[in-house]
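User: My instructor asked us to take a sequence, write out its structure as tokens, and then describe one feature of it. I'm not sure where to start. Here is the sequence I was given:
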Amino acid sequence: MNRLNIAKLRKSLKMNQETFRKEVGISQSYLSELETGKKNLTEELYNSIVERFGRNIIIPFVELDCDNIALDTPHLNCDNKNAIPLFELEAASCGMPSGFEIAIEANKCDRYIIPDLAGCDFTMRTRGRSMINRKYPERSIPERSIVGCRIWKSRSHVRWGEVYALATPDGVVIKKVMPSEKEGYIKCVSFNEEEGFIPYDLPASEIQDWAIVVGVVNVMNWV
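Assistant: Let's start with the prediction itself. The structure tokens for your sequence are:
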């Protein structure tokens, strides 16, 4: 799981060790071991700290576990491991011969901390209504959502039925990927067939880069 820099969090809250350990219900010795890295934070304690202080307070002190990130991806730098690159679909020059890594690097993306999307190589903001899922709203990707993606290196193993971001000569498409009846093709399926977004076949040879969608963040403005 992600690491939480307990010492920096505690100091930002202007608490000494005695006050902090009472707030979260742990012993002095355990707190010292957490702060010096001798022991790892348990998921139960992490959730307890989030509940006590609030997610917005602890986010700046969450450190991604770089063992779960594709370190050979050039745009990722573990010196800045808290932040995940974000780029807009409109700015993604992902047609041949480019790919996601090149597009991200070329666009000098802004980076954001999104702890619940740990393990992403990048995020992108979507456009269009084709992936709105009325049958299973929890799997919906509304317009202007932020999708977390992990670059999919394998070309011999595809997880059929999952949603991928595909870099094509015409730009990036985000679709559920299914086998095609046509050899050398995949079938791209939209969730929102009610509005006329019908499945279509895409030549696998035209896909320059693949990234599996691992999570979605929906932003709803109330004011």
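For the description part of your assignment, you could build on this observation: DSSP finds six helices and eleven strands in the chain. Try explaining in your own words what that tells you about the chain.
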